[in-house]
Write a structure and sequence with these properties.
It is a multi-pass membrane protein. The chain is built from 11 helices and no strands. With about 220 residues, the chain is an all-alpha fold. The chain has one domain. It is globular and about 50 Å long. The C terminus is likely disordered.
Length: about 220
């Protein structure tokens, strides 16, 4: 992550915002990319005064919402064969076992899987394509997608920015400690949501989960 931050710091601010939106957007379409690492690195740059936190957060939210929506459209058109092709292309991230877990989350929790999925690497990648392939109604998907994207983007960015600025003020002579503190705060900002989402995924189903029925788009 430090290498990513160093690389981003050499770019003009507009390029940083575009990279944040682009990487997170492509990740949300179903392609495994380090979207969260890029967001955390950019938020730390904002704390250092290199970029503006509001633009980092807006770029991340834009990429998340638009990328998920494109992933939804692609998944709706391509269906399960598309997910199978993605699994063959990225077996470590989107193999049959990962796909089965993600589909089980959707079957149990519906659009809440989209919201919580923004805080879990596997579902962050699969939420859009899988929701489209399962014909989750788009209006419901969009509400959960937008809510999750905004909370994740603005929450992560501003928590890291705030802690980073405080660390810079109080720990000027121990810069590495400020960085560690900021990173730990960023991880802590999503701890509860990650833990809750994983608990939901690991809960044994009392009865076989019913498949998600196709819904009419709004």
């Amino acid at each position: 992550m430090v290498d990513v931050q160093h690389w981003l710091s050499a770019l003009p601010p507009v390029a940083v915002y575009l990279i944040v939106a682009g990487v997170i957007g492509v990740e949300s379409m179903g392609v495994p990319l380090p979207g969260e690492i890029v967001l955390v690195s950019s938020a730390l740059l904002a704390a250092a005064g290199v970029v503006e936190p509001e633009w980092v957060a807006c770029a991340a939210a834009f990429g998340a919402i638009v990328g998920d929506s494109i992933g939804y459209a692609v998944g709706r058109r391509g269906g399960r064969p598309l997910l199978a092709r993605l699994g063959r292309r990225f077996p470590r991230h989107l193999g049959p076992a990962q796909l089965a877990r993600a589909e089980q989350s959707f079957a149990r929790h519906g659009v809440w899987a989209v919201f919580f999925g923004r805080f879990v690497a596997l579902l962050r990648i699969l939420a859009g394509p899988l929701a489209g392939a399962l014909h989750v109604p788009y209006r419901r998907f969009l509400v959960a997608n937008a809510a999750g994207g905004l909370v994740w983007a603005f929450g992560t960015t501003y928590l890291l920015y705030t802690v980073g600025r405080a660390a810079e003020h109080w720990l000027k002579d121990i810069s590495w400690a400020g960085l560690v503190l900021a990173v730990l705060a960023g991880l802590g900002s999503t701890w509860w949501l990650r833990r809750r989402a994983r608990q939901l995924d690991q809960e044994p189903a009392s009865e076989p989960a019913e498949p998600v029925r196709a819904g009419r788009d709004g």
